[in-house]
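User: Can you model how MU-OXO-diiron sits in this protein?
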Amino acid sequence: MKEPLKAVRITDKVYWVGAVDWDIRDFHGYSTNRGTSYNAYLILAEKPTLIDTVKAPFLPEMMARISSVIDPKAIRLVVSNHSEMDHSGALPELLKLIEPEKVVASPAGVKALRAHFHDLAPVQAVKEGESLDLGGDRLSFRMTPMLHWPDSMFSYLESDGVLFSNDAFGMHLASLSRFDDEVPDWRYEAAKYYANILLPFSDIVLALLDKFDKTGFSPKMIAPDHGPIWRKDVKMIMSLWGAWARQKGTDKAVIVFDTMWGSTEKLALAAAEGLAAGGTKTVVMPMRLSHRSDVATELLDAGALLVGSPTINRQMFPTMADVLSYLKGLKPRSKIGAAFGSYGWAGESIQQVQDALVAMGVSTCEPVKCQYVPDAAALASAYDLGQKISAKLKEPR
Ligand code: FEO
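Assistant: Here's the modeled complex, given as structure tokens:
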């Protein structure tokens, strides 16, 4: 019987030997509606080298793909660019199976791997600028701490111009296609990945891109650990990352809300009408139907965030606490916004939301609140809030 799981040729000597996870829908709180891939790469140099592994249950898939081009026991070097378990989970079992000469990781990666897998075979640290001779081919290492973990590093195969970037420039997208030009609808997933994983580290992203620019570093391909390999749009994905990292909000607003009896929803829709009347692109996201990670994605290029919550037991609605806590951790910048909501007795949630927006660094307008069902005056206030924010979005910032 033929083995259906094959390696995919990337260059004459680099093969994709990862795994595709079609089923995953939640990745530590990030909705992966289109699944993901765990990319591992095999360099067929004189010393065959494996870059990263896969999530533990996918070890058999990776081994089958490796076996389609080489006996896995021939692998001499293993590089761990990132110790998070979607890339290192299969490492302990792999090492028992293939017994390579050497395993390398960044200094922080060595510590992280030991803290994850307490009986792991010895792992050697490599430092910034260090390189390994693969037997004629050189693999050099660049430390990229906090992109997105302290241990993260890139490996670069100089002969082929392939940058193995671990999570950087990746996206969660399961596909039978391996290259960017074969997956034309990648834009939303790339933005979602940046918004949910990299946004808090935007200054580090900008410093990295600046360093690439100043040193004239221009890889022919970027091979990340999730999603397609960049061979056509290498410059485009770097340029998009630069734009996302700079966080210049556009004339776009995101309204997130939940509602108990439809009153906060009425205020949300009135504010949306006011924004739209001002020409602002407006995305309305009811939180009982929307995922926090999609809110983060929509907010990535938005200039405004409006948050509506009813008050329940003197607190904001739980769905709103969830999304606000999540967004705060992502440290979005340069947003304007406001709180709004309907209430029955004291309406504590509106101030709580406003305080959460201020704590997030959002430049806030006066909140809009009303008791029970909004009347025409309350709806007009919400509409005016939308218009005011739309006008502010057009001011130079
Ligand atoms: Fe794909 Fe940070 O792991």
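A couple of observations from the model: The first strand starts at residue 8 and ends at 9. The radius of gyration is 24 Å.
User: Helpful, thanks.
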